[in-house]
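Section 4.2 – Deliverable D4.2 (structural model, holo form)

The reporting period included a commitment to supply a predicted holo structure for the target in complex with magnesium ion. Inputs used:
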Amino acid sequence: MSEEKSLNFIEELIENDLKSGKYEMLVTRFPPEPNGYLHIGHAKAICLNFGLTQKYGGYTNLRFDDTNPVTEKTEYVNSQQEDIQWLGFQWKNELFASDYFGQLHAYAVKLIEKNLAYVDDSTAEEIAAQKGTPTEPGVPNQYRERSIAENLDLFAKMKNGAFPDGACTLRAKIDMASPNMLMRDPIIYRIKHAHHHRTGDTWCIYPMYDFAHGQSDSIEQITHSICTLEYVAHRELYDWFIEKLEIFPSKQYEFARLNLTYTVMSKRKLLQLVNEKLVSGWDDPRMPTISGLRRRGYTPESIREFCERIGIAKRENLIELSLLEFCIREDLNKKASRVMAVLDPIKLVITNYEGDGEVLIGENNPEAEDKGGTREIPFGRELWIEREDFMEEPAKKWFRLAPGAMVRLKFAYIVKCDNFIKDEHGNVTEVHCSYFPESKSGSDTSGINVKGTIHWVSTAHAKTAEVRLYDRLFTVESPDAEEGDFKDYLNPGSMQVLDKVYIEPYLATASLENRYQFIRKGYFCVDKDSTADKPIFNRVVSLKDSWKG
Ligand code: ATP
Ligand code: MG
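Output (structure tokens):
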């Protein structure tokens, strides 16, 4: 599979810029706002920005875009750092847009001095009304003609706390008739008497996103500032500020954000799920957050592979959740040991078996290059098997247990069902079989051919565990696009808890990093809620895509 991959449009651009000598070195940044945990959409931006400098040299900065004092928290900063590192990337410089507050303030003063910014006393409603519409130009107001000296004085007063929130704003003086609404004298500073998670109470004026973002890029000499398509219209403003301030010419490029089926992907909405306790937290294994995917059992390799496969598009699109699942399945197929766990147990008794104490040897992973080593599996006269592996009245083409039918017990012997027992409710509780001593796996001389193989756990050696099975978090493909509140479309059956699952003793020592294939049941990992008495396993993904058909 060493097929040359064609370049995406951003790689093409960068190769041209490096060839033409426009930049000596590539510098990118990942600029999250610390107002929530990162999600799989951010993973795409992370893989893109860090991936480019891994490929072409140069480096990537991590810059927290913490210019909004109200929504930001140190908890989010820490989780975002952890998630980026877990994905396998390391930033060169760790920076905070709030570190540039002094510089950004000086830039604003420079604009005023160039007669390119003014203090406006209008209310938010007045500003909106004066702004015009896409088809009608806006109207300039009287504040636009304030003198440079008056503006400098008022802006200093804003900074010194002379005015309450909302009393006035600083606006760039651009063009109230521009066809681009964002160019109609955008607000660049607002008053907000709020405590900031890093700068404390030093500031009571804060820069708006558009005024902070491009300038922060420029301060860091970012060559390619990559963002999502919503910012296409902002590019003109981005360039205007850089030109008028005469600072390093960073350039903005846009790509399509990742949208995934059966989930929502905005920190604001994910925060609602957390706050309203509709999920157990940001790292609930059903969440599309990186921490949720990690807890669910996803590997960094599988997420990077997913981002690679979806590529970089210039148009909005919707990616199937099943592609993400495909990527983890492929990865775990190579990495996960095959073990046995019985999720919905009934007892199987081998009536002619006398060899208690027998220990079988199981190969851990036939798909792995080194086969993943081997382990010991205690066998016995009484075993747990899955209820669904026995049928009293077998369907056509039934290759598992039924009266008179034969199956192989994985790693062990062929058994034949002679009888079964039911309780007073008519539920089967025990299946009685006889076994063929010469049919042992690996040294089978019985000459018997069976089509079905089932998994089992010895009742005398089994440990008990809890298993959590997950389904998609929403019942519709695009909860955002539906009528009403997106939360109305939550899937009530998105988590199923099985609290009496029997696992083979080997699994009792499973640790948080380990992932397993429970034979025939899917891929599982240990959940952090596990205790020494009761291990808890999350199903990462089923063995096959069960949603199709
Ligand atoms: P959210 O609404 O989820 O908070 P955001 O864009 O406001 O998204 P930021 O923290 O500002 O989140 O984003 C940091 C970087 O991640 C930005 O460069 C942004 O373009 C990128 N990003 C965010 N969501 C996605 C997505 N779904 N697909 C690709 N990139 C994304
Ligand atoms: Mg944002």
